[in-house]
Amino acid sequence: MTDTLPKTRTPDAPAGPPLGTVSTGPALLPRRGTRRRLGPGRAVPFGRLLGPVLVVALWWASSALGYLDPRILSGPGRVWSTALDLIQDGRLQDNVLTSLQRAGLGLLFGVLAGVVLAVAAGLSRTGEYLLDGTLQVKRAIPSLAMLPLLILWLGIGEQMKVTVIALGVAVTVYINTYASLTGLDSKYVELAESLDLSRWQFLRKVVAPGSLPGFFVGLRLGVTASWLGLIVVEQINSTSGIGYMMFQAQQYAQSDVIIVGLIAYGIFGFVSDAAVRAVERRALSWRRTLAG
Prior knowledge:
Helix content is about 65%, strand content about 0%. The chain has helices spanning about 50-65, 75-90, 90-120, 125-140, 145-155, 160-180, 185-195, 200-235, 240-250, 255-285.
C-alpha cells in the first residue's frame, strides 16, 4: 500500500490578474457615467447677452433707487425716450449710416492690406526682411498718434478718417495672420514636398487652412480697432456721425444723448463680433476647440 498524504484545504482566494500583468485598481478606472468633463461646459444659446443684461439691470436699479444723479448719468427710461425722439427726427439713422460707412470702408481696406502684407512677409524671406521690421515699428506707434501728420497730408475730410481706421485695422490683421503663417508646423511642409504639391496647391491646401485661425483672431481685433478709431476721428471737424452727435451733446451737457451714442457703438461692436464668430465657426468647422 502506498501512503497518501492528507490534502489540506485552503480558503478560496480571489481571482487575480494573470501573471505578468499589472493590476489597475478601481480608483484608476473611471466608472461608467461618472467621467469628469474638464472643458468649459455646454454652450448656451445667446449666453453672451447675460453680461450686458446684468449691467443694464444694475444701471436700472441704481437709477430707480436714486443712487445716480440724472444730471451726471441719465437713467434707462430717459435714455430710451431720447433714443425714440432721435429716431423720430431721423438724426440717429443719418448719423448711424455715416458712421457705418466710415467704419466699413476702413475695415475693408485695412483687412485687405493686412492680409496682403502678411502673405508677402510670411511666405518670402525678402518680404519678411522688407516688411516685418517696418510694421513692427508701426505697431509701436498708435494710429491716433499719427493724426497730426495725416491731417497735414490728407486734410480733415473723409479720406483722412478712413485712413486712420484702416491703419489700425491693417496692423492688427497683419500681426495675427503673419504669426499664424510663420507658425505652421514644418511637418506639413515636408508632407507637401513629399506629395510633390505645386506652389498653388501648397498655398490652397496647407497654408490657407493653417493660417485661418490666426486670421480670424486678427479680424475680430480689427473690427474692434475700427470702432475705436471711428470714435476719435468723428470728433475731428465732423458734421455727421455718432461721434459728432455725442460731441455736440457734450457741449450742452446732454448725458442722455451721449449714452445713446455709446449704446449704439456697443451694439455695433457686439453684433459685428458675433458675425465674425459665426463665419469663423463655419469656416473652421473641421477644428475641435474648447469654444465648441
